[in-house]
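User: For a benchmark we're assembling, each entry needs the component sequences followed by a predicted structure for the full assembly. Here are entry 17's components. Please fill in the structure.
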Amino acid sequence: MTDKTDVWQGTLALMVLKTLEAMGPQHGYGIARRIEQTSGDLLSINYGTLYPALLKLEQEGYVSSEWGTSDNNRKAKYYKLTRAGRRQLERQTREWEQTTAILARFFTPAKQSS
Amino acid sequence: MNLRQLRALALRLAGMFRREERDREIAEELESHLEMHIADNVRAGMSPAEARRQALIKLGGLTQTEQEYRRRRGLPLLEDLWQDLRYGARSLLRQPAFTIVAVLTLSLGIGANTALFSVINAVLLRPLPYTDPDRLVIMWEKAPTQDTSVSYLNFQDWRDQNQSFEEITAYRPENFNLTGAGEPERLAGRMASASFFRTLGAKLFKGSDFPAEEDRIGGQRVVILGHAFWQRRFGGDEGLIGRELTLNNQSHEVIGIAAPNFRFGSDADVYVMLGQDEGRCARSRGCHPGIRVVGRLKPGLSIEQARADMDAIMARLGEQYPRTNADRRTHIASLYNNTVQDVRPALFILLGAVGFVLLLACANVANLLLARSAVRQKEIAIRTALGASRWRVVRQLLTESIVLGILGGTVGLVLAFWWTGALKSLVPGNIPRLDEAAIDMRVLGFSFLISVLTGVVFGLIPALPASKPDVNEALKEGERGSTGSRHRIRSILVVSEVAIALVLLIGAGLMVKSLWRLQNVRTGFDTQNLLTMQLSYTAGKDEAQRVRGFFTELEERIKATPGVNSVAFSSGLPFVGASENSVWLSGCRPDNPSDVMMAVEYLVTPDYFRTLAIELKKGRLINEHDREGKRLVAVIDESFADRYFPGQEPIGQYLDNGNGMKDIEVVGVVGHVKHYGLDGEVPVDPQYYLALSQAPDELLPVIASDISVAVRTSGEPGKLVPSIRQQVLATNKNQSVFNARSMDQVIAESINARRFAMLLMTIFAVVALVLASVGIYGVISYSVTQRTHEMGLRMALGAQGRDVLKMVIGQGMLLVLIGVGCGLVGAFGMTRVMSSLLFNVSTTDPATFGGIAALFVAVAIIACYIPARRAMKVDPLIALRYE
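Assistant: Structure for entry 17:
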C-alpha cells in the first residue's frame, strides 16, 4: 500500500508529530500554519490534506484528540502527542537523519576517480 | 501487519458505522478551521468574501477534504462493495424479467449439469468401492461359439495353477429359503469361495471371515450376513454371531456381518461358501452353474499377462479333459469395465448432452447480458461523466454479474439436489451403482464457475466502450450507440443455440422412437394381464411324487381363485429366465462337446401355452395325458424346427437331452417367444418345452426349488397377488411366493436402462428447447425495442401492422432457419455415436429429423411472434416522439 500519497503522507505525518512535540496540543489549523511557517513558506500544502493525515495518526494511536476552546474562544478540536507518538517520533527522526546522511554522501562531489 | 496497523484497521472498520455522527464531527472541525483561517485573512486586510474564498482555496475544497477524510475513516473497498451490492440488487429488481430469465437459465444449466454429472460420476467415473479396484478382473469361460460361466472344477485348477493373481475367488448368485426363525423368507445370496472378501479387499463389519478349510463338501456350514439384511431382519443384534440360521433346510452358523457399504453386484442378504455346494454341478467339469471368477492381479501385472497365463492353463486342461474342455479359453476383463460397460455409451452421450445444455445456458446468459449492456451504456456514460473511474464501473458490473451468478447457483443447487433424488428414484436398482450417487461438490463448483465466468465476461462488455473517453458521444447516441457488432454476436449466439438444441432434440427424438419400436416388438405371447411369480418348494431328493402332488393341489386351488383364467407352472419364463440345455437327435450325440446344440428349456404344466397364449403352429400341445411313466413328449418352437430339422417334418422325431432324458417325441411346433429381452443379443435361439410331470424323479425336487408361476388374470394382475399367496400358504404353510410382478412390469424393467437414458435425454432436449426459445425471444424482443422508432416511422408512412409483424418474424426466422440448417448438419454427423442406443431406427432417420426440425420451427415462430405482436401495436405518434 505504498503509492505517492503514502510517501507524502509519511513525510507529512513526521512534520505533524514534530510540530505537536514543539507546540504541545494544537488544532488542525494551527498545525497547518505552523508547518508552513517552519518551512519558511517554501512548502505550500493544501490544508485539507492535513485532516486525513491526522485521522490516520489518531487511528494508529500516535495522537489523540479532544474538543477544546481556541485563544479567541472558538470551538476547535485539539490534537496532542501520545506516548506512543513520542516514541514513533524519535524513531522516525532517527531514520530520517540516517536516510538524509546516506543520501548526502551520494550528493557530495565524488572523491574517487570515475 | 503490525499491531498498530491492526488497530487502525479495526478503527476503520468501526468507522463504517455511525456515519452521520462522524460526518457531523468532521464538518464542525473543518468549519472551525475555516473560521479561524477567515479571521486571520480578514485581519490581514481581505474583504470577508475574499477571505472565505482564499481560505477555501487553501483548504483544497470543502467537499474534497470531507471525501478524502471519509475515505481514510472507513474502508472504501468494503463500502464500495456494499454499495455495489445494493445498487446491483436494485438494478436487478428494476428489471425482474431479465433477472428471472437469467437466474432460471443459470440454475437450469447448473442444476441439470450437477445432477446428471453426479449420477454419471457415481456409475461411471468413481472407482469401485474395493481396495485397489483397478487390480480386480472378472473371468469366465469362452467356447468357440459362446461364453459360459465357469465350472467349479475348472475354477479349482485356475486357483491352484495360476501365476498371476494374489487372490482369486469364485462366486455365483443363489437364493435361499430362510425358515425356522419366524416368517419364512426368500433371501438373495451369493455362494462364494472362502477368499471372496479377501480378494475384494473388503473388511467385515463384525465377526470373522470364511474359514478356508471348511470350503469343501462336508465342511462346517457357516454364513456371513449382509449388513442391510442383518439390520432389517434382526435389528442389528450382535448376539446373532455364533447362532444358527436355517437356510434351504440346512443349519448354518452365523460367523460375521459384512460392512455396511459392501456390495457386489446386486444386494445380497447372505454369503455362503461355494465349496459346500452339493448341487449336481459341483463334480462335473462340463457343468456351468453360473459361477464367475474374480481375481486380484499381482501388483504391476497387466491383464494381457494374466490372459496369457490363463490361456496356458486352459490349453493344458483342454488336453487333459477333451470331452469338456476342448477349445475352451478364459475371458478376462477388468471388473470396472465389466460393471459399467452396458451403461457406458448411454452415459457418455448424456454427458455430451450435459455439456451442450451448459453451453446453451452460457450462451443464453451472454445473450441476455449483451442485450442489457446496450441499455446500460447510457447509464454507464452518465456515471463516467460524473467522475466514476473505469475500474469503479468495472467493479460495479462485476458485482452485478456475481450477484446474478450466486442467485443462479443457489437455485441451481436446490434443483441439483432435487433432480439427483428424482433421477435415483426413477430407476429402482436396475442401473449398477446408481444408489451411490450423491451431489458432487466439485461438479457443482465447476458448473457454477463456468456460469459465473460467462456472466462476468459478458457482463463487462458494456464497460469496454464506455471506458472510452468519448463520453459525450455515448450520451448523445443513447441506446443506439455502437451496437452493430454486438447485435451480430447475439445473432451468432442465437444461431448456435438453435443448432445445439436441435441436435439434442433429434438425439432425444431418435431415442423416443427406438423405445417406441422396442415396446412394439412382438414377444410371441400375450403380455397383458399376465402375472408372474417365483416359488421355491423344498423337497428331498426322493420326493418327486410329493412335488407332483403339491403342484397338482396348488394348481387346483389357484385355478379356483376368482379372477384367475388359467395358471401354469414352469421351470422358466421368458424375460424372467430359464435354463439352457443341450439337445440332440436321439442316438446322434456329437463327439465334440462344442458341437452340441443348446436350446432354452421350459418344463411346463399343460396349461402353460394357454396361459401365455403361445400360438400352436403344428401338431399338438402338451396335455394332461403326458404324465410320468408315459412316453416323453416335447413341443419345439419354430426356431428349433428350422435349426434341427431344416426341410424335414419335425413331428414324430426323437430327441435326447443333457438331463439324461431319452427318446423324447416331438409332438408339436409352437411360435418363437422373445426369451432374453426385447433387444440385445440372443445367446441361444431354439426353444423347446417338456412336460413338467415327466421330468426325471431325481431332477424334479431341484426344479421345484426354483419354479415360475404364470397366471392369466381377467383384470389387473397385481390385485390377485394376496389371494394367490393365501392359496400357496394354504397348500403348504412353509411356502412363500416372491417376485410377484406382472409380465408387462417385467418387460418394462428389462428396458429400464434404455428408458432411463431416453428420459434423461428428453429432459435435456426440452431444457435445450426452452433455453433456445428464450434466446430467440430475447434477441427479437430486444431488436423490437431498439427499432421502435423505425417501426413508428414505417407505420406513419403507411405500413400495416401485418407488414411489421411479417418483417419481425421474418428477421427472427432467418436466424432460426440458419440455426436449424446447422443443427441438421450437426445432428447428421453426431447421432452416429448413438447407434448403440438405438433400436430399429437409423441414426439419420428422416422422419425424426424432419419432424423435430418442424417442431422446432413451430416453437421458434411462437418465440418470435410474441415480440412481433408488440412491434405491430406500436403507436406511430408515441414511437416518433420516443427518446
